[in-house]
Structures are given as structure tokens and as C-alpha cells.
Amino acid sequence: MNASKRLAIFDRLAIAIPDPQTELNYTTAFELLIAVVLSAQATDKSVNKATAILFPLANTPEKILALGEDHLKETIKTIGLFNSKASNIMQLCQKLLRDFQGQVPQTRAELESLAGVGRKTANVILNTAFGQPTIAVDTHIFRVANRTGLASGKNVLEVELKLEKSTPNKHKRAAHHLLILLGRYTCIARKPHCDRCPIHDLCEYPDKQPIDNLNK
Description:
Elements: H1 3-16, H2 29-38, H3 44-57, H4 61-67, H5 69-76, H6 82-99, H7 108-112, H8 119-128, H9 139-148, H10 156-166, H11 172-185, H12 211-214
């Protein structure tokens, strides 16, 4: 795919999704960090339900540590892998207080030093909380990037690096959420909604449904 087509794709997406934002509920960088850690192998909707209970009780490292691991587990037990996530969150809070004065760090390396935080989670925090032009490749972005031809790759890191290199500069900040939302609601895994895709004519997916067939 050439640069002009990539620019046209992101221009279209920016018009179709004028205010791309995460669907996780949060008010601080720390709340976002906890929400993203909880979101591994869970839906944003389920995380929002849990954090609606958790955050009024504890929404700082100090308060979560005071809450205790058992109470934390009870609060987030509706989310998959809640035992390991609770353990990671307790360790994460301890390290934030010990090494970062209780503040969420703003570099990938520092974020990845926290329990339960991998490259994808770090990229989400850097992008969403701190406005850095990172692209966290989840299953939606991996699918959309490969399917459309924006960035083909065999693994998420390969796709991430290609997207970071090829995404037009003016769209790098928003690209993460534009692609996630496209994949979550339009370019879905099974039977993508080609009939309402804003980039149908630009997409290089060989099995996309022709518009003429969709309108019959």
C-alpha cells in the first residue's frame, strides 16, 4: 500500500470517527492504568462495571494497598483472571510508591517495569494518558492492519512497528483508537460490515464484499 492511500484511509477514518477515545472509564492516569491492566482478556464493558465499584473505594496506589488484596479480588471477581490481576495490581501499586512517588511513569521502559504491564498496556497509557503517538496493537488492530493492507505482519510487534513507521504524522496520535473502533464495530472478525465501512474502496482485503452485492 502506498503513502497516498494510507493518508486517504486515515483521513476518511478521522471524518467517520471525529473524536476517537478509549471506551474504558477513567479520570486519572492511574485509573486508566488499572483499567487497562484489568482489560487483558476482558471486555471494556466488563472492566467498566468493575471499576465503577472499585474506583469510588480506591483510586490511588495508597488506597488500593489499604483496601487489601482480598478485598480487591472480591471487587474485581467478575473479570477473568481476577486473582492474578489483583496480585499484579498490588505489586504495581507498591512499586509506584517506592520508585515513582506514586505517579504513573511516562516512558515505556518504566511502565513495563510494573507488574502486569506489557508493551501493549504501556503503549495504551503513553497514548491515551500522555498523548504520545504510540500504537498498541490488540486483536482488533492486528486484524484491521492485516486485512486492509495497512500493515501486514505475522505478530503484533511486527504490525506495530510497521504502523508506527507508515502512519501519516498528522494521524499518529489518533491512529490507535481509530483502528480499534473500526475493528470493534465495522471490520469485525466474522462477516465484516463492508456495507458501512468508510474505507471500502481503499481497503485491499481480497475477500471484501462488493458494494453492488451488499446493496442487493
